[in-house]
């Protein structure tokens, strides 16, 4: 009897997830995740990226496993291990802070200073069925230390394009940190971001995981990049921002 995965995928599902591949070898597979797709779990009754990994299942029932997550509305690079040893290796490297993640984001006005590091403790709170993070004082029970580096790449009177590098991996960290310094991300309704940008609507959270550098199970260091999505590029162009 042939192996049947626990998730039924359509031909369109399989074609879609295969079209998102930006790197694949014997050990790892990297995707350019579109905005609006949950990495795992999620309350929306739709396939997640984790579900879609069944498209790569082998006859013995083994399939790739995600190594990390991105918020549903964040686009860009996300990594999976193709074998159990590879996934375990990458998971340990992630815990050891050997991953370097680089994001691009749009904000309404240039930060002051133009670059720097945000060091603020975060506390997770449940509000109804939603999880939120908020900045709290060091020593608050349950608070987690978190750090983000940022720098301005392009800015004018229409807005700014910034590069973000999380030094820790807390939920919603980049979004909360930028809101904390008075520069919430465009399209981020949860943390006070504007839903318009440069005179037009912002279609979603304007946060893109553009580059990921990580130790490869075979020994070298690998960097994978995801190009800017069309909606992100369109807002940049409308505001006259350049990369």
From TrEMBL:
It comes from the Bacteria. Residues 27-180 form the Pseudouridine synthase RsuA/RluA-like domain. InterPro entries: PsdUridine_synth_cat_dom_sf (IPR020103), PsdUridine_synth_RluA-like_CS (IPR006224), PsdUridine_synth_RsuA/RluA (IPR006145), RluA_PseudoU_synthase (IPR050188). Pfam families: PseudoU_synth_2 (PF00849). One of its GO terms (biological process) is enzyme-directed rRNA pseudouridine synthesis. GO terms for molecular function: catalytic activity, acting on RNA; pseudouridine synthase activity; RNA binding. Transmembrane segments: none annotated. Belongs to the pseudouridine synthase RluA family. PANTHER family: MITOCHONDRIAL RNA PSEUDOURIDINE SYNTHASE, RNA PSEUDOURIDYLATE SYNTHASE DOMAIN-CONTAINING PROTEIN 1. This is Ribosomal large subunit pseudouridine synthase C. It comes from Brevundimonas abyssalis TAR-001.
């Amino acid at each position: 009897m042939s192996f049947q995965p626990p998730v039924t995928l359509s031909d369109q599902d399989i074609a879609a997830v295969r079209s998102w591949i930006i790197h694949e070898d014997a050990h790892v597979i990297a995707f350019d995740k579109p905005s609006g797709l949950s990495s795992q779990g999620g309350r929306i009754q739709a396939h997640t990226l984790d579900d879609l990994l069944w498209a790569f299942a082998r006859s013995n029932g083994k399939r790739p496993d995600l190594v990390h997550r991105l918020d549903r509305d964040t686009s860009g690079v996300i990594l999976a291990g193709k074998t159990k040893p590879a996934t375990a290796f990458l998971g340990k490297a992630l815990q050891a802070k050997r991953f370097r993640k680089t994001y691009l984001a749009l904000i309404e006005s240039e930060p002051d200073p133009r670059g720097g590091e945000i060091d603020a403790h975060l506390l997770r709170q449940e509000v109804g069925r939603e999880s939120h993070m908020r900045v709290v004082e060091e020593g608050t029970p349950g608070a987690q230390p978190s750090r983000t580096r940022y720098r301005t790449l392009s800015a004018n009177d229409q807005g700014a394009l910034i590069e973000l590098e999380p030094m820790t991996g807390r939920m919603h960290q980049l979004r909360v940190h930028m809101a904390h310094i008075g520069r919430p991300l465009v399209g981020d309704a949860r943390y006070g971001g504007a839903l318009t940008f440069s005179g037009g609507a912002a279609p979603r959270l304007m946060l893109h995981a553009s580059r990921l550098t990580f130790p490869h199970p075979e020994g070298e260091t690998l960097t994978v990049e995801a190009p800017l999505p069309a909606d992100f590029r369109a807002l940049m162009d409308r505001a006259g921002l350049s990369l």
